[in-house]
Task: structure prediction
Amino acid sequence: MTSPATTTRHSDARILTIISIVLGVVALFFVPIVLGPVGAVLGFVAMARGDRPLGMWAGIWCIVATILGFVLAAAFLHAAGS
Result:
């Protein structure tokens, strides 16, 4: 049986993971330079707090989303300038 402190800790880590994933999705389209790294940090903090596999993937997703956000912005600006 898990203690209430352990359950709360895992619950907090899962909340950080969910926020990280949401920030990664939003970073694809809006302000990737800010939202992507913040989401990555939250994902890795969640991983350190006990949400190991999902927290790690959320952090990696935010890094990828930051890069994809820059690529999408460059493609959009290039198409708008033509």
